[in-house]
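Dear support,

I submitted the protein below through the web form. The confirmation email said the job was done, but the results page showed an empty box. After a refresh the structure appeared. I'm attaching both so you can tell me whether what I see now is the final result or a partial one.
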Amino acid sequence: MASSKEYCSELLNRAGIQINGSHPWDMQVHDDNIFDQVLSRGNLGLGETYMAGLWDAERLDQFFHRLLRSGVQDEVNPARLIFHSLKSRLFNLQDDKRAWEVGQKHYDIGNKLYQAMLDERMVYTCGYWRDADNLNEAQRDKLELSCQKLQLKPGMRILDIGCGWGSFMQYAAENYGVECVGVTISKEQVRLGEERCKDLPVEFRLQDYRDLDESFDRIISLGMFEHVGQKNYEDYMDVARRCLKDDGLFLLHTIGKNVSDTAADPWISRYIFPNGEIPSIAQIGAALEQRFVCEDLHNFGADYDKTLMGWFENFDTAWPQLESDYEKTFYRMWKYYLLSCAGAFRARDIQLWQWILSKQGIEGGYHRPFV
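What the results page shows now:
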């Protein structure tokens, strides 16, 4: 029987990755114990041993691109991770009490970090890179694309579910003359967002989406659906339907997965997004039935690669000014998060979708703007 190291080496070779090789994507191993950890604990073991400094790769993004594109990771399916999958089936990990956990553990860890990492508008979702040369342009173009898809007009009232620091609301209010209400479960986002949007017709609410019950001309949700959880998809769509006017439009912007399993990545769930869960097209489609008509579905998931690389470049540059605010392992944890996700989008292992939804279907049809 091959040793753990020999077995991992065989799998990595099939992905074009060598142990202690000379390529920037090769795995530089400082402790052979990592192989037992990876085989017994999957990506949780891979991520935790990286955080502990037991291995490195000069270009983590390239390492994960090659690994995920090859598909060899599917051959590592540790039995102990079955419980992680079962939890999402048996329990509602995103109920109205647990939903606040991601705000406290991710979005409230420091506005200084996000101000340094993100673009000038503080957009924490995928940029749109078709005509953009840098992160600021890509995020501006994504906001403009979203506004045009929603066909905004002056005087409309807009609901932003998961509004972040208010980047969309600020842009829409300044450029389209609309009024906005945004809900978030992050106290720090409300605090900074209100500063950034002062003197605009923009309202921030520290509120769970399930408590919404009022009328809006348009609804948008950029990068929040990943926190809803498959047990709550239908409830989420019920909330959006009851809040949207009969002739309104709803733009749902979410990361998506290619298959309808229910297991979230255990490392991401433990260290980055507690209780997060990426939906599939089938899961979203099932939740839409008898609630919404899908007018348009747009995949620009490959653009998330460039977005995440831009975020990492900003984070890496700013780290000397940030490190005193965080624990010793934070840099390696955050680097692993940003670059492993960049590699995953580059490998097309995960996607980014914008759905345009209406309650009854638009007579004459909906036409996506050419932006």
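Response: this is the final, complete result; the empty box was a page-load delay. Residues 7 and 35 are 9 Å apart (CA to CA).
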